[in-house]
Amino acid sequence: PDVIIEAQFDDNDAEHGQDHFQDMLADDITKLSLDTDEKGEAHSSYLYRTKQDDGPKVNDPRLLPDKFLQRTAKVVYILEKKHSRAATGFIKLLADKNSELFRRCAMFSPVDHRVPRAYVSLADCPPDFVTRPEDYSNMLFICRIVDWKEDSNFATGQLAKSLGQAGEIEPETEGILTEYGVDFSDFSPEALECLPQSLPWVISPGEMAKRRDLR
Fold it and tell me: Among 69, 85, 86, 174, which is least packed by CB within 10 angstroms?
């Protein structure tokens, strides 16, 4: 049937596909309206025609012009991981205290809700976190996602470091820079040697004459 359909419809059919469908619908309605002697006869005529008609149906998506179709796709491979897999957030104990997971893991809740919550090992948490979790309720941590199994609602993460209290400038800034993979470490001695060594440094008059002043 696929070959027959492709042979029957050319570019002209595709351009005028909607008119063709309307004509087919009008023909069906006309044929049904002719069989109005008895309700049963009209119904049986319609059923008979549907069973015997092996040609293309009106709602066959293969007959629709491209402009009426919504293209779909499927992700088959991750070419490059753009996200740093690091997130800023808080840690807290699991709700189910009787579970085996409660004795091994804590829950990491990221500030950015686009990042999934993750299980982190209690070994990575502060030593007194289990006995005094309230002391760390407002403490920011950096967690890096290392895995996310298909059958789990939560990812698996590893705590990198403690940043400090939430709401303070330094921890919040460090967390944002870490999430976006910005290197904010100190400049190397080689980089510092490229800077002028005689301080204070000023732009020479000759250099000023060649530049456009945007101050």
Answer: 69
Cβ atoms of 108 and 91 within 8 Å: the answer is yes
pLDDT of residue 198 exceeding 60, the answer is yes
Res 49 pLDDT > 80: no
Q: Are 56 and 5 within 8 A, CB to CB? A: yes
Grouping H, G, I as helix, E, B as strand and the rest as coil, residue 21 is helix
DSSP state of 8: H
Q: How far is CA 161 from each of CA 83, 102, 140, 171, 174, rounded to the nearest angstrom?
A: 19, 21, 9, 11, 11
Segment 121-174, tens digit of pLDDT: 999 999 999 999 999 989 999 999 999 988 889 999 999 888 988 888 998 999
What number of helices (H) and strands (E) belong to the chain? 7, 5
Secondary structure (3-state) at 63: helix
CA distance 134 to 131: 9
| Cα–Cα distance for residue pair 34/23, rounded to 1 Å | 17
User: What is the set of domains in the chain, with CATH numbers?
Assistant: 1-8+73-206 (2.40.50.700)
pLDDT(64) > 50? yes
